[in-house]
């Protein structure tokens, strides 16, 4: 007999706000299935103003309220049983981030958790990454967002270490990343992966998902360093308009894809990885998994 419930997760990032709806299917004597039912993305680029001006504008705050009210209606329609919203670097760095979060809660009734980089990395790491890649014992998970990049090193099925860097696509576009940040990430990756002979990268984020989709690769097959570097040279050679018309990219993707690809290539180079796997998981998936783990813990306490 199956027990099916729908969970909702909202990821308020620096480049976009996303609502993920997942059907959690429990089977007696078998592993629980997490089936993605719906994903809605609204490109409210909070990072562009927060990283430059230090606060969220009234216009963006109103757009966020509208988006969250729409998400609330969608979750009601989906009959969501458990829900959580998490905001990352843009809202946590905005001087009025908590004020806007309270405003959204008053208007929509949805509470927003503003999490730090370490919490973000831990939530992402709660997804069952190891089961997605067979025969790989060591891999570096690289989640590239608009405001930050979260890194997690896994070895022998264990989360070894995680680190968050203020190195994101929107920051790079705005020229707000100093060389020392790149140097810090290079040093960290080389140090943490030094003792392993073979490291594969797992790429997460809308940009690597877009690149993977356009590659025509089958799900589960990796992109090579050579392919990604060739793609990087291609997109750099095209204008913003050409990336939209010739590569069929959305306007809010066509600019950030270049700095994102640079970050993935750098992580691969520094970890000496030849391949990057793209399983299409991220913070939203981690939120859902965390909600489910909490449910299991509650049931154990009752029993």
TrEMBL record:
GO molecular function: pyrophosphatase activity
Pfam families to which the protein is assigned, alphabetical: Ppx-GppA
Domain (Ppx/GppA phosphatase N-terminal): residue spans on this chain: 41-291
InterPro entries registered for this protein in UniProt: ATPase_NBD (IPR043129), GppA/Ppx_hydrolase (IPR050273), Ppx_GppA_N (IPR003695)
Stored CDD domains: ASKHA_NBD_PPX_GppA (cd24006)
Official protein name in the record: Exopolyphosphatase
Source organism: Aequorivita lipolytica
């Amino acid at each position: 007999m199956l027990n099916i419930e729908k969970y909702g997760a909202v990821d308020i990032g620096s480049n976009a706000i996303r609502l993920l709806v997942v059907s959690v299917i429990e089977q007696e004597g078998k592993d629980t299935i997490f089936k993605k039912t719906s994903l809605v993305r609204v490109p409210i680029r909070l990072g562009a103003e927060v990283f430059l001006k230090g606060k969220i504008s009234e216009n963006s705050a109103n757009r966020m309220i509208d988006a969250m009210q729409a998400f609330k209606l969608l979750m009601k329609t989906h009959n969501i049983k458990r829900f959580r919203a998490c905001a990352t670097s843009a809202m946590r760095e905005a001087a009025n981030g908590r004020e806007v979060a309270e405003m959204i809660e008053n208007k929509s009734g949805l509470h927003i958790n503003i999490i730090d980089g370490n919490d973000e990395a831990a939530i992402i790491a709660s997804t069952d990454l190891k089961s997605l890649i067979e025969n790989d014992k060591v891999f570096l998970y690289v989640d590239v967002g608009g405001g930050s990049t979260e890194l997690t090193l896994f070895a022998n099925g264990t989360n070894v270490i995680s680190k968050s860097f203020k190195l994101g696509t929107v920051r790079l576009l705005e020229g707000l990343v100093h060389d020392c940040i790149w140097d810090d990430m290079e040093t960290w990756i080389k140090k943490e992966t030094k003792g392993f002979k073979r490291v594969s990268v797992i790429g997460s984020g809308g940009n690597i998902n877009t690149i993977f989709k356009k590659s025509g690769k089958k799900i589960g097959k990796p992109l090579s360093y050579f392919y990604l570097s060739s793609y990087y040279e291609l997109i750099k050679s095209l204008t913003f308009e050409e990336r939209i018309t010739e590569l069929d990219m959305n306007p809010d993707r066509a600019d950030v894809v270049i700095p994102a690809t640079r970050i993935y290539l750098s992580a691969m180079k520094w970890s000496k990885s030849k391949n990057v796997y793209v399983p299409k998981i991220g913070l939203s998936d981690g939120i859902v998994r965390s909600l489910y783990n909490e449910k299991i813990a509650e049931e154990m306490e009752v029993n």
